[in-house]
Amino acid sequence: MTHAEWLLLLSPAGLLVSVVVHAMLARCSREGGLWRHLGISLSLGLGFMIAVLTFSAVTCGDVPTHLAVLGFDTISFLALGYVYAEWNNIPFTSTRLRVLRECRSAGGLDRRELVRIYDGPEVIRLRIDRYLAIGQLREREGRIFVRKGWVYWMVRFYAVARVVLFGKG
Amino acid sequence: MQVSMAACVLRILADGGACWILAVVLLGIVTRVNGSRPVSGAVMGGLFVATFPAFNGALALTGAAPSWIPSTLLQWIALLTLYGGLCCASVFVYTAAGDRNPTVVLYTVLASGERAGRVRGDLEKRAGAEIAFEQKIGDLVESGWFREGGDGRLVPTRKGTRIGGVLMAWRRALGYVDEDVG
Fold it and tell me: I want to staple A76 with a disulfide (CB 3.0 to 4.6 A). Which of A11, A101, A166, B97 is the partner?
């Protein structure tokens, strides 16, 4: 086992740093909300990984191997980080969790009763409020406009994925 | 031939990347065969899990091992971490890219309004209709999160209660209240 092989496992360690920082931020402050906290914590996790690799490259001197490991760990960390971000997004935006909550608190609902409490326009209303609050949409003179922030680019990415995976535009 | 550690790392990266691309291509093919409808989580999981040993087994059979597939336990763990991360990320992208994702619908309706934007009430109504909420409820029953009792009431199943419980527990652990979910 070489030193470089251990460095290949830095991405889970970086994610662990992100999880700890995220939990601390979420418990200590509400400012900026979920996505700001995730942005800060994932950046720190990535920074931790790069710092360890830089320290290792300086002390060992094998730069080509460390650059290869950096590429490997960065791709691995970005994939894990995206999964972690989505894992956190679900409990905030999931329709099924809201339906679950409504059904449990009412001791069971039929479809008509459910739609009276929570329906398509209500789902959209909550999203608009959320995206306005974090600056991903803007409202001017009573009209809503798209801003080219990260949500816009995610939606564009999903549109491409939809064509690739489902063959639909 | 002696392979440098840098080349070895890049080859493991290529192994994981190629294996993941193959799994995504297979997922696309299975989806088209399914009439361009999203496949179930079990099918998706099975496909991702089966592709890994099949791909690396095929590499080993062609004589590419050991230079193109990992040769130590740590390298295998690193490759599995990379492949697992990419596959889990693909599951989330696949779900979001599927039909009637509310955020995608919202942005699509907004984009169709061109530069003038949309009035809030109109946007809520149009995009709300597009996500076909009643059909979504049907999907929840179909996916096994709820069952419909004899009186037409939606009752959470054990699966829905367990998965939902874990997700809500995570939310509460971060200090958020349950009220504004959705």
Answer: A11
Q: Assess contact for A93 and A50: CB atoms under 8 A.
A: no
Residue B18 is predicted with a pLDDT of: 96
Q: Tell whether A147 is within 8 A of chain B (Cβ).
A: no
Q: Supply the DSSP symbol for B114.
A: G
What backbone torsions phi and psi does residue B154 show, to the nearest 5 degrees?
A: -85, 125
Interface of A with B in 88-117 (CB under 8 A): 88, 90-101, 103-104, 108-111, 114-115
A13-44, pLDDT tens digit by residue? 999 999 999 999 998 887 778 889 999 999 99
Tokens 């009430």 correspond to B121
| Chain B CB contacts of A87 below 8 Å | 170
For residue B16, what are its two tokens? 């994981």
Residue A122 has pLDDT above 60, yes or no: yes
Give percent of chain B above pLDDT 70.
Answer: 96
Check whether residue A106 and residue A44 sit in a common domain. no
Asked if residues B128 and A124 have their Cβ atoms less than 8 Å apart, the reply is yes
User: Do A120 and A155 belong to one domain?
Assistant: yes
Q: What is the pLDDT of residue A88?
A: 94
- pLDDT over 60 at A1, yes or no: no
3-state secondary structure of A77: helix
A80 lies in the same domain as A18: yes
Look up residue B4 and give its DSSP letter.
Answer: P
Same domain, A137 and A70: no
Instruction: Name the residue among B7, B74, B151 with its Cβ closest to that of A6.
Output: B74
**A168 close to A162: Cβ distance less than 8 angstroms:** yes
pLDDT at B114 over 60: yes
Judged by CB atoms closer than 8 Å, whether chains meet at B28 and A120 is answered as: no
Query: Tokens for A37?
Result: 């906290």
The whole-model pTM stands at: 0.90
